[in-house]
Amino acid sequence: MKNSRPSTQTAALTCHNLVVGYAEKPVISNINISVETGQFITLLGPNGAGKTTLLRTLSRHQPPLAGSIRVGEQPLEQLRQADLAKIMAVVLTDKITPPLFTAFQFVALGRYPHTGFLGRLTDKDKDVVLTALAAVHADDLSHRDFADLSDGERQKVLVARALAQEPQILLLDEPTAHLDLKHRLEVMAILRNLCRDKGITVIASLHDVDIAAKVSDRVALVKDGAITSWGSPEQILTSETVAVLYDFRTACFSHHLGSIEIRGEQYRGRVFVVAGMGKGASIYRMLAKRGYGISTGMLLSNDLDCYVASGLGAKCVSQSPGSTFTEETRTMALSEMEASDMVIEANHHTNGPYQENQDLIRRAVQMGKPVFSFRTASGRNKINGIITVTDNSELFTAMEVHCP
Questions:
Q1: Terminus-to-terminus CA distance in the chain, angstroms?
Q2: Burial of 84 (0-12, 13-18, 19+ CB in 10 A)
Q3: What CA–CA distance (Å, rounded) separates 114 from 124?
Q4: In this structure, are residues 146 and 140 in contact, taking their beta carbons and an 8 Å threshold?
């Protein structure tokens, strides 16, 4: 599988028929990828798929079993270690506990390819170290002992040490594994900016599919001893490919939303939601979390609500955007509503085609369904027989009362 985007420059890193593994036991075979300078490459796959093994092979921590790796125009095995260190920096998951080092001193170790035989730091070297610490928002850790840092703080300092090498290629194994959400997003933004602003090529293994979808130029899906897919996340990361990659049963990746929706077990009653214009998204998720079965309509197929409902496995009555809903769509919505135990009106606005959903609410009242709505009780569009609520908390309290 080769990068299909044309390029006139030499690739930053190329693998040809590469096989990686241990003791002549292949873990991933037939790797053929070409990575352009300044790209963000993400390796995705379940634990044990071989992502770390591939990174260790690319960084020359272990030899390949077969095939070749080129860094620029040079074979990896022919590069002197000192020259490779000026090109490539690595952050692996190995536990590192250096004694008696401050964070600044530890990051300064990343300058070893540039400091000469005696390893003395010049003013420029010190500036690079401080810049690297600031880049990962760890400048306040500069004088603290590395051994006293938390896992998250250590991870940021490890990345800073790699940046202090001023590499052209940066390899990272789960760089956000020990970070909280704030720092995880910060580090990913930093790495992404390194690609854009400095032309650094980043190759990282991640578990966050949603983050990978947002930051990657290319993704490699790794499973069952092979790279099963290689390409842009917009092409590769679909609900089907992600489900197969991670053996999802109760979750679904939405490529429209770039996130994973967790489906409920549907052990309670079935709810029909009249939504649209994104008004139903939070309600779908809360219903799924509480174990309700969900159906919804009538929706336009490009509506946010349609994407969220589909990701949650809800029955979604929708059609392509148009001025009015078809008779077939109306019939399907009525059928779904009739089969439900209760109805929620998430969107009571009467703009555009969604004004036709007002008839669904009237029909639900006629059917004797409990109908919950966010419209005000005295609103001009009041429909007798509906139960008005003001927020999601009040909605679910009312549902428990009327439909225990």
A1: 55
A2: buried
A3: 10
A4: no
Q: What is the Cα–Cα distance from 165 to 142, expressed in whole angstroms?
A: 17
Q: What share of the chain is helix, strand, coil (3-state, %, to 5)?
A: 40, 25, 40
pTM of the model: 0.82
Q: Contact, 300 vs 321, CB < 8 A? A: yes
Residues 290-345: tens digit of each pLDDT: 999 999 999 999 999 999 999 999 999 999 987 789 999 999 999 999 999 999 99
Write the Ramachandran bin of 45: left for phi over 0, alpha for psi from -120 to 50, otherwise beta. left
Residues in the chain: 404
Tokens, residue 229 = 């897919």
Quote the Cα angle for 118-120-125, to 5°. 140
In angstroms, the CA 184 to CA 190 distance is 10
Q: Examine residue 298 and say whether the peptide bond preceding it is cis (omega within 30 degrees of 0).
A: yes
Domains, the chain, ranges and CATH? 13-247 (3.40.50.300), 263-402 (3.40.50.1220)
